[in-house]
User: What shape does this take?
Amino acid sequence: MVIPWQGFPLDDLIRRVEPTGNAKYVEMTSLLDPEQMPGQRSAVLKWPYVEGLRLDEAMHPLTILAVGLYGDALPNQNGAPLRLVVPWKYGFKGIKSIVKIRLTETQPQNTWAIAAPREYGFYANVNPEVNHPRWSQATERRIGDFLRRPTLPFNGYAEQVAGLYSGMDMRANF
Amino acid sequence: MAGTITPSSPFPRWMPFVPHKREPYPWLKPGIFLGGLLPLVYTFVRASQGALSANPIAQTENELGLTALIFLVASLACTPARRLFGWTWPPRIRRELGLFAFFYASLHFLTYLILDQFFDASAIVADIAQRPFITVGFAALVLLIPLALTSTTESIRKLGYQRWVRLHQLVYLAGALAVLHFIWRVKIDLSQPLTYASVLGVLLAVRLVFWLRKRYTGKAA
Assistant: This one.
């Protein structure tokens, strides 16, 4: 997926609040409003939606809070007014309609890891060599393309972000 | 011309299911034939308008698979409908419903083979061998092949009715595998596949009850 997002680095926001040394993670929460968001009326996931990043991931310059795409203001369905975009995690972690951001000392409980811990972890760094328990993630089709293409480690941003995970077992921390 | 009994058929010659003139609901078979093509037409129309989501290939694949399942469940509803409500028309379209299930299941598979995987043989073999949801879906399609091939009246005659019925009981297994394919495929929200699983369960349970009654009381219900 190659989407032209408009936004600003999350790092800019985090620096403004001057995190203390205890801040290890960032936890974000989506708007809970079943009136506007009818999907939340059924308990398929634990609402409100919660997502998290390690502080160094959150402060990486590629991580942005998006306010628009394709040159226009962010449409509601894409997460207006503010959503997270972490380009090296494909579409994962892109929490929409953020209403709360907290710095935490312990690893946040992200919604998908609660819902299906065997299938979704905290990091969601798509590893093309490791299958999702139920399907392959070795290839992908970009929006607008016909043919699939091989999925790259870190969505092609390995040079910029692989260092964040050096020494970590990426199979255990998926 | 009083007395002559040669009404000209109101149906054009190209129609494969020209109704018997004395059957009730003469439009039933042509209706199911044309109606069965509507989901495909609907998908084509939206494809031409670019209205099949951001991922039209996946959307097409999902819609064709769901349509196949709906026809399969509908074909399994014909016999219970006759036995429970005394309706005679559903069994008359059972063959057409079953053939449409096979038709849409084949298109679902062809979409996967061509549009989704573009003949990537190694990926397809790995999918069928290693991913249970694909294994059971593929098995369901394979089970439908002999049923489609022996769907003609001539096949019933050739095989003998008892053996033909035995063979066509494979459809229960195909239905169960198709529902399992759906359950194992969804990411988290099971409401839709479980709805189909429940309907299928009821249809099979009705058969079981009738079968048990026949067996222990000797009476067909």
